[in-house]
Specification:
With 213 residues, the protein is of the alpha+beta class. Helices cover 46% and strands 20% of the residues. The protein has a five-stranded antiparallel sheet with strand order 2-1-5-4-3, with helices on both faces. A hairpin with a 5-residue loop joins β4 and β5. α5 crosses α7. The relative contact order is 0.14.
């Protein structure tokens, strides 16, 4: 289970000003929705998937829904309403319409990050274009989608882990007045001492202020 996140640490980097692509997911269509301020951030891949020049429009749920296939629009709208209301994640296949590319088949994966009050504060997600897989591997459709969905989840989880570790490193730098390398070493040492994964140690530091070990 992924750790829940709050927006109390380093929120100045989020959304829509900084696209902050990650090494493994630079071309992935990713988005974030800060619920408290109703602000969206889209990656360059997200703009491209919807037929926009990067930064050409202000990202929003309305723009996202307007490019849905009419038969998929209500389902997508209801899913976003649920994740905003109770934090219920979802993954499903849907279609996007653009003038440039016509109909594209996408896997939409969305999850919520809860605040201290256990209410959704941030919604994040990603799109994976599986149109080519649909065309080339129609007979093995379900197996192909399952593999692509797993890869999407892996990339998303890896990006979240790097972000947690980066934020925790920044906290330690400020707290101990050390360099980034020294702060990262403190975090690794705590992980090894406690016998816990580095993202878990980083998450606990962010949410409790305590460094285990």
């Amino acid at each position: 289970m992924r750790p829940e996140r709050t927006l109390c640490v380093q929120t100045s980097r989020r959304p829509a000003e900084d696209a902050r692509p990650t090494p493994d997911a630079a071309d992935l269509a990713r988005f974030e929705w800060e619920l408290t301020r109703d602000r969206w951030w889209w990656s360059d891949g997200m703009y491209a998937a919807h037929g926009f020049t990067a930064r050409g429009v202000e990202p929003s749920l309305e723009h996202l829904l307007n490019h849905q296939h009419p038969k998929d629009r209500d389902r997508t709208k209801e899913a976003f309403a649920r994740v905003r209301r109770d934090g219920r994640p979802f993954v499903f296949e849907h279609r996007i319409l653009t003038e440039a590319t016509g109909v594209r088949t996408m896997i939409l994966s969305v999850s919520a990050h809860l605040g201290p009050d256990r209410q959704p504060r941030l919604v994040s997600g990603a799109l994976l274009d599986v149109s080519e897989a649909r065309r080339l591997h129609h007979a093995a459709e379900q197996d192909s989608i399952a593999g692509l969905q797993a890869e999407l989840m892996r990339l998303s989880a890896a990006a979240d882990s790097r972000e947690l570790i980066g934020q925790a490193t920044g906290v330690l730098m400020e707290r101990h007045k050390v360099t980034a390398n020294e702060a990262a070493a403190l975090l690794r040492r705590a992980s090894q001492t406690a016998g816990r994964k580095l993202p878990d140690v980083a998450s606990e530091l962010l949410y409790t202020g305590k460094l285990v070990g």
